[in-house]
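Quick one, probably user error.
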């Protein structure tokens, strides 16, 4: 096999705008099929990308020798069942973040893929921004010294989203913590090469049986001693910021294509330029290389599971009004 044949499950707005074009352009793979719930939209999307095959029932894609791997871009509540189904039919899986509705589902996904002998990657695409890659390089090289504190924020106006299910607990699982905060958590651990030790959370309003929170703030203590403060919201204009404070310097960055990083060391401020590229395409190419035996799994299931364990603990923190230690 020298090229991965891809299918997309749940190829809605994000799938059309970002995932499908990335797969088409990515080295080492090709897009051969998409699935949508409504046949008219499925046919239209397939025509847009020049595909001969489309379906409304995922089994029509998975049961045939049509694809080698699927990108699951469906609503959050479908991530686990579609991963289990794909594994049953021997298909590799790249599942969009959040990995699942909770850590228990994540464990079942990992076990199913392991039993079936297929690969599981979690779609934490923010890892592949040039700024994130550069930040990890600087931190791991010790340019900032020991990282003492990190401030992270990710916001956008949720009611303007093209995902009608975003505010429904049953489908989304949670609010901005599940949708935006999972990116912040993942990049925090990725850049620092560390894990969250404890979490204290505040949410407004609290997640209910039917609705999700709209604002969330976390105080995190990392295993290596770093303290992090995370904020995500559906009620503020769109922004995605990180600030790392170390004993030797400070790094500030905004995650958007081409934005420079601000590095403050030795009492001097320096702007670091980074290349502009499609980070979703980089994500696809990294998994293609892995499936072709040319590199490691860039975001293995265990990383997605750890994110879900922290998120589960954050919701428990709100319910109990106390700091929660993460039980990995």
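Nope, works fine. Designed sequence:
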């Amino acid at each position: 096999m020298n090229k991965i044949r891809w299918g997309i499950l749940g190829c809605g707005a994000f799938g059309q705008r970002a995932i499908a074009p990335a797969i088409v352009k990515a080295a080492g793979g090709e897009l051969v099929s998409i699935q949508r719930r409504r046949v008219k939209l499925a046919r239209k999307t397939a025509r847009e990308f020049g595909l001969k095959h489309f379906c409304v029932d995922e089994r029509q894609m998975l049961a045939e020798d049509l694809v080698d791997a699927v990108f699951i871009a469906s609503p959050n509540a479908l991530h686990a069942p579609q991963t289990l189904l794909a594994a049953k039919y021997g298909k590799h899986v790249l599942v969009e973040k959040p990995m699942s509705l909770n850590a228990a589902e994540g464990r079942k996904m990992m076990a199913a893929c392991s039993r079936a002998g297929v690969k599981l990657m979690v779609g934490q695409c923010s890892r592949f921004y040039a700024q994130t890659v550069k930040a990890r390089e600087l931190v791991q090289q010790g340019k900032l010294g020991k990282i003492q504190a990190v401030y992270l924020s990710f916001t956008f106006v949720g009611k303007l989203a093209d995902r009608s299910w975003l505010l429904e607990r049953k489908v989304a699982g949670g609010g901005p913590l599940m949708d935006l905060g999972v990116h912040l958590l993942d990049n925090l651990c990725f850049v620092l090469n560390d894990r969250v030790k404890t979490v204290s959370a505040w949410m407004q309003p609290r997640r209910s049986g039917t609705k999700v929170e709209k604002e969330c703030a976390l105080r995190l203590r990392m295993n290596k001693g770093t303290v992090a403060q995370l904020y995500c919201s559906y009620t503020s204009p769109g922004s995605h910021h990180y600030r790392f404070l170390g004993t030797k310097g400070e790094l500030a960055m905004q995650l958007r294509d081409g934005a420079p990083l601000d590095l403050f060391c030795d009492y001097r401020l320096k702007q670091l330029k980074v290349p502009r590229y499609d980070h979703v395409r980089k994500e696809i190419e990294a998994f293609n290389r892995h499936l072709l035996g040319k590199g490691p799994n860039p975001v293995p299931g265990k990383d997605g599971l750890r994110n879900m364990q922290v998120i589960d603990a954050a919701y428990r923190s709100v319910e109990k009004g106390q700091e929660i230690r993460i039980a990995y």
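The chain has two domains: 4-125, 126-277+300-325.
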